[in-house]
């Protein structure tokens, strides 16, 4: 199976956000920017999960480069999706409650801090 891409993460976040039909509430650029922020959070909390990037800054993606494979183990893909959806909901007062956004952000943080990225076999 192919490794997930940044685009896959954006599409999965859109499902949680119930934002799958154009015109979108959240632009591709907003969601990709959130992905870029997420990389820095992963580097801050669990630098061991960023593959081959010790001492390097994370690559910055745009909607034009979002077909690139994610730069960390695919086992934390769902945690990244939670981050994208949570950050988006925090930005959007009209369509969400703080509780849902907080739950998504907590799932990201707790899962990421757990051994093996929170993934059990």
Uncertain regions spanning at least 5 consecutive residues: none
How many strand segments? 0
Shape, per Cα inertia axes: globular
The helix content is 40-55%
Radius of gyration: 14 Å
Main β-sheet, in a few words? none
Number of domains: 1
Series of secondary-structure elements, N-terminal to C-terminal: HHHH
Would you give an account of this structure?
The chain has 121 residues and is mainly α. The protein has one domain. It is 50% helix and 0% strand. The mean pLDDT is 85.
Briefly characterize the structure.
This protein is mainly α. It contains four helices and no strands.
Write the layout of secondary structure elements.
Layout: H1 6-17, H2 28-45, H3 77-91, H4 98-113
Annotation keywords:
4 helices, 121 residues, mainly alpha
């Amino acid at each position: 199976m192919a490794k997930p891409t940044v685009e896959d993460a954006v599409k999965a976040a859109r499902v949680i956000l119930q934002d799958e039909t154009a015109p979108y509430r959240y632009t591709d650029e907003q969601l990709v920017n959130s992905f870029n922020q997420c990389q820095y959070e992963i580097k801050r909390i669990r630098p061991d999960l960023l593959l081959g990037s010790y001492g390097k800054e994370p690559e910055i993606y745009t909607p034009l480069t979002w077909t690139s494979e994610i730069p960390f183990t695919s086992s934390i893909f769902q945690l990244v999706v939670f981050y994208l959806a949570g950050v988006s909901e925090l930005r959007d007062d009209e369509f969400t409650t703080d509780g849902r956004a907080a739950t998504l952000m907590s799932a990201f943080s707790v899962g990421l801090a757990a051994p093996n990225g929170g993934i059990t076999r």
